[in-house]
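Hi R.,

Here's the chain you asked about this morning:
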Amino acid sequence: MVRWGLFLLVLCGSISVQAQKSVLLDKVVAVVDDDIIMKSELDNRTRAIGRRLQQQGTSAPPTEVLELRVLNQLVLESIQLQRAEITGIRIADDLLNKTIANIASSNNMTLEQFEAQLALEGETYAGAREQIRREMLVTRLQQSAVDRRVRVTELEVENFLASKEGRTQSGAEYLLGHILIALPESASEDEVANVTARAEGVLAQLQGGAEFRKVAVAESDGRQALEGGVIGWRKENELPTIAADILPTLAVGEPSRLLRTGSGFHIITPLEKRGGTQKIVDQYRVRHILIAPSEIRTDEQAKEISEKLYERLLNDEDFATLAKANSDDPVSAIDGGDLDWVNTGQMVPQFEEVMLVSPVGEITQPFKSDFGWHILQVTDVRKQDVGAKLQENQARQVIRRRKYEEELLDWLQEIKSESFIEVKEERFAELENK
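And here is the predicted structure, written out as tokens:
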């Protein structure tokens, strides 16, 4: 007891001395509705952004300008975090952990290496984790508030696809093949006749089914002759002048007519094509029954249920009826398990692997995916041109992204104007009026 008493006396004396020497360690720089922003927050964020700019090789603006911009960022962040709290938006720990792991992985680091790198940059893992959580909250709030304000009309999609930018982004790409039969500038009539005959002979070989690359190596005088005449992939707006009009009219592997220029006769061919208005894909008409584990059903029990359903299907019970009564996929269950037409890459890997090897009409044995146990049946297969639909979707995404950014800026200004903001330092006073 004596030791503890002595310790407390010493501690109290120490506190008394410290009180006499107290200095201002922190202060409020802004009040934002029900929140405050401390100078330490402003200093820490300013230093972090300064380090980031330095790492990127970007010159930072003057300190007073940078601090004003950082304070504005903190004010907007505070407003949004308070709104997220009011609307009940939460970030689950497992999602936060997964996000941090993905950030580390994208930087080719383990979590331990990520934490060590933060320490080198003067940041703590706990601080970085909290900042990531805050950013995720803000992003989720923005999506909730701004998405509903963005509308993309069919006319906007049509106009974008018809524009020069739309044609550039969505146009086809060609793997361009080229054969040149050179003609001297001052060629005599006999030389022109001989070169013309030679070029016609080369074209006849190609039209007769000869392999383009093999003919190019043997006959072409062009720079890419030894590469089989392959120039490389070119978008429609990047095609050579002589190819720009004719190449889009050719089928893959079809040689052009002889094209005469000052350097000689040219033959061009689209060796391959991708993008544009044509994209043929395999589609599968699929139905399934999903039995998923739950709080009251173990994975083993889900497997047993799916196996019993499989036996009933083999005994000619109706697939659609069993799916409606038993499937844990509420959307497809209503339609008897029907998933409609499915493209490759659309389903989870375990599901797609089974789908791709299943003969039409055959009911698969139960198999497991991330969602649970499936019984699957492919009812039909077809090839479908989805190029135009892909173009429309890409155009819609471009327009939506642009509109989203515009609406986000407007929304941020709105919520800022609706908030109470009091800046405690005169040098930041203009922030209240922005």
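One quick note: The domain at 280-385 is CATH 3.10.50.40 (Chitinase A; domain 3).

Cheers,
M.
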